[in-house]
Amino acid sequence: MLVSYKWLSEMLDLSNVTAEELADKMSRTGIEVEEVNQPSAGLKKIVVGDVKECVPHPDSDHLSICQVDVGEDELYQIVCGAPNIQAGKKVIVAMPNSRIAGNVKIKKGKMRGEVSLGMICSLDELGYSENVVPKAYSDGIFFMPEDAVPGSDVYPYLGMEDEIIELSITPNRADALSMRGAAHEVGAIYNQKPTFETLELKEDASEKAADYLSVSVTDEKDTPNYRMRIVKDVTVKESPAWLQNRLMNAGIRPINNLVDVTNYVLILFGQPLHAFDYNQLGSKEILVRRGQAGEKLVTLDEEERDITAENVVITNGQKPLALAGIMGGKESEITDGTTTVAIEAASFDGIITRKSAKQFGLRSESSSRFEKGINLDTVEEALAFAAQMMADLGEGTVVSGEVVGTETKAPETSVTIALAKINRSLGTDLTVSAVSDILKALDFEFTESGEVFTVSIPGRRWDISIEADMIEEVARIYGYDNLPSTLPSGEALPGALTSDQAITRAIRESVEGSGLSEAISYALTTEDKATAFVLEDAPVVALQSPMSSDRGVLRQSLISGLLEDVAYNIARKNNDVALYEIGKVFSQVADEILPKEVNHLGFAISGLWQQQTWQNGKELVDFYVLKGILENIFKRLGLTDVIRFEATTELTDLHPGRSAKLVAGEQTIGFIGQVHPVIAKAYDVNETYVAEINLEALLALDGVGIKYQEVGKFPAMTRDMALLVNSEVSNQQLVDVIKANAGKFLADIKLFDIFQGEKLGADKKSMAYSLTFLNNEATLVDEEVTSAMDKIQAALVSELGVEVR
C-alpha cells in the first residue's frame, strides 16, 4: 500500500511530524513501513516548457525541432523524437546540465546536425514506471496543465514534491489498505481524529435508478453486498491533474475521468468499484450468479476466459459481463463514447475471489482487497461518493436512488476484557484512565465498570474479535518500546545434547566424512513411490486436499525422494552423486487419528566413487562401497558385532542378487542394495545403490554409543586360515561360526582373500581369514591360540562342511 504523506496531511495535522518520523512510529506500532520515497529525489533542473514552434527535422522522418519557452529571455531549441509533440503544449523540459531518472546527466548537444539545448521528457524519464503513465501518454511525452508557468519546477504540478510511504500490510490488517484506514491508524498513534472529504450527493429526482436496472443475486453467501447507481449525461475525458497525480503516486495508471474515479475511491475507502457502460449492457437486468460450463468472457485485457462453476460472474441475465471482484468485460467497458454509467459496489466471498484470481492469473488491487476483507459499513457511502464525483468530473447527473441486490452490514462485535487481564498479559501497571485514553485514540466506543471494559468494535476493524486482539491493540498504541522487560527467573542449566542427538550427530559426521552430502527431499509424493522400498506394507497417509496428484501422499521410505534427487543431478550432467538424508517416514495406524512418524536414515550413490588420477585408477560405486559406509557407522557406534548383513530377494525394488537386509538379533532394521534396473530406468538414473535404516530402531539397540577403552598393554597374536567352502556359504555364516567358537580372546576377523576357479570346482570357493587374538590382562601363549583355532576349525567342518586348507 502506497500512502501519500501530503494526502494524509489533509486528514490529520502532521505539521510537526516528518514522513520519516511517521514511518518509524508506524513500524513500531505494528504496521511495517518498507521505505519512504520522494518522487523528485535525484532530479535536477527539470522545468515547465511552452512549445512555441514545432517543425520537422530536415534530416529525419521522426524528429522534430522545437522552440521552447523555458522562462528565459530567449527560446530554447530542442530536438524531440516524441510522436505526439506539438506547438501550443506545455511540456517537461530537462535543461542543460540537468539530471533525470537513473542519475543521467543531460548536456547541450547536436542531433542530426541541429543544436539541442536539453531534452523534452516523458514521465518515464522522470522515474515513473511505464505501468502508471497515463494511457494517453504511454507512447509519448506528457503534457502539463495549461496553467503551468514556463520555467517553474515541474514537481508541484506532478505531485512529485510529495513523500510516498510504502506500507507492508499483513493479511490481518487489511483495514489499512486505504487512505481512510491509514488515517485511522495514524490518528490512533498521535491521538487525533481524522477528517475525511465528503461530497454532497445531488440526485435528479425526475428519474429513478430502478427504472434503468433491476439487480438480483442468486447466492448471498457468494455476494453478501451488491448495489448499483446510475450516472447519466457524462462526458468521458482526461482527469484533472490532481487526480492523475494521486493515482500515479499510488501506483495506478490514470485512464479517464470515469475509470479514475473508481480507482480513487478504491484508494480512499478501500472499496473496489466497477463502472459499466450502461448502453452496452445488453439488457436492463443485472444477475450475479455462478458461471456455467461453456461460458466465455473477453476481459478488459482482451483475453478470452473460460468460465467455470467455481467463478462468480456479473451477467445481463444471459451472458457474463464481468468476473466478480477481479476484472470487467471488454464489451461493457467505459469508452470515449460512454454517456451513461452503471456503477457497481459490492463485496464478494474472499475464498472464491482468491481461487478465481489464481485460476485466471488476474490478481488485482480489487481482488486482493476482497480476499482479505473490506469494510461492509462503507459500501453504500463509497458508492454514493463515487457517483457524485463522476457527475462532477464528467459534467453529468446522478439518477435518484440505488438498486440493491443484497445488503449485509458488519456484525455488531463487542469484546469484554478486564484491566487485570491486560496488565497481566503485558506485564504493565496501566490504570483505567490510561486504557480509556488508548481506546479513545483508537476511536472505539466503550463502557467501563469495575475495571472491566466492554468495547464495541467498529466495522472498519473486522480483525478484532477476542480478548487477545484487544490486548494487542492496547500494546500497540501504548508502545511496544514502553512494555517492561525482565530477565527470565529460575535456575539456569547448561545445555547439552541428549543421547540420541549426540549419536545422530556422530552418524552425520561419519557419513559426511565418507564423502556424502546431505539432501532434503519432499515428504509428499505419489502413492506408488510412497510404498516403494519398504520392508513392511502399511496403509498410506493421504492428504484430503493435495496441491497436486504428484504430492498427495506422505512417504513411507526416503529412497524415492533420494532417487528423484539423483535423477535431478544426472539430468544436469552431474553423474557422480553421493547423498544421504535423515528424515521422517509416515504410516497410518489402525484406530489412530494421527499417522505414525519414524525417523529413517537413507543413502543413494551413483557414478564414480573415485576419479582417475596419475596414482589411482577410477573406481565405480558398487554394493561394497555403500556397505563400507554403513560399516563405518556401525563401528563408530560400537555395533559391529550387533548388526549383520543377510542376503535377500524379498525386496522387489532391489536387484535380487545385490541386496541384503540389515538384521540386529531377530529384528530387521534396514536394507542395502542396487536399485532394480527396471526401477532405475523409470527414474532415468544410472546404476545406483541405496540403503535405508530405521534410525529409531538403531538408536534403541543395546550397546549403541561411542565407547572408549585403554590401548592394550600386551601383544596380540595373529593366525591365518584358508577355507574351501561351497559357493552358497556366505561370509556372514563363516564369521558367525568363528565368533561362536573362538573364545573370549578373539579381537578381530578380516577376510583378506576370495578365490574361485576351475581348479577348485564350479561350486567351490576359497576364503582366507586373518584372526587376531588379544588378552588385555596377560600375554597370550601359543597354546591358548592354537586351542582356539582347533575349536574354530572343528566347528567349521562340522557345521558348514568346510575344508581347512
From TrEMBL:
It is an enzyme of class 6 (ligase). Its main location: cytoplasm. GO terms for cellular component: phenylalanine-tRNA ligase complex. InterPro entries: aa-tRNA-synth_II/BPL/LPL (IPR045864), B3/B4_tRNA-bd (IPR005146), DNA-bd_dom_put_sf (IPR009061), Fdx_antiC-bd (IPR005121), Fdx_antiC-bd_sf (IPR036690), NA-bd_OB-fold (IPR012340), Phe-tRNA-ligase_IIc_bsu (IPR045060), Phe-tRNA-ligase_IIc_bsu_bact (IPR004532). CDD domains: PheRS_beta_core, tRNA_bind_bactPheRS. GO terms for molecular function: ATP binding; catalytic activity, acting on a protein; magnesium ion binding; phenylalanine-tRNA ligase activity; transferase activity; tRNA binding. Its cofactor is Mg(2+). Its EC number is 6.1.1.20. It is found in: Cytoplasm. Gene3D superfamilies: 3.30.56.10, Bira Bifunctional Protein, Domain 2, Ferrodoxin-fold anticodon-binding domain, Nucleic acid-binding proteins, Phenylalanyl-trna Synthetase, Chain B, domain 3. It catalyses: tRNA(Phe) + L-phenylalanine + ATP = L-phenylalanyl-tRNA(Phe) + AMP + diphosphate + H(+). It comes from the Bacteria. GO terms for biological process: phenylalanyl-tRNA aminoacylation. Residues 712-805 form the FDX-ACB domain. Residues 410-485 form the B5 domain. Binds 2 magnesium ions per tetramer. Residues 40-155 form the TRNA-binding domain. Mg(2+) binds at D463, D469, E472, E473. Keywords: Aminoacyl-tRNA synthetase, ATP-binding, Cytoplasm, Ligase, Magnesium, Metal-binding, Nucleotide-binding, Protein biosynthesis, RNA-binding, tRNA-binding. NCBIfam families: pheT_bact, YtpR. Tetramer of two alpha and two beta subunits. Belongs to the phenylalanyl-tRNA synthetase beta subunit family. Type 1 subfamily. HAMAP family: Phe_tRNA_synth_beta1. This is Phenylalanine--tRNA ligase beta subunit. It comes from Vagococcus coleopterorum. The gene is pheT.
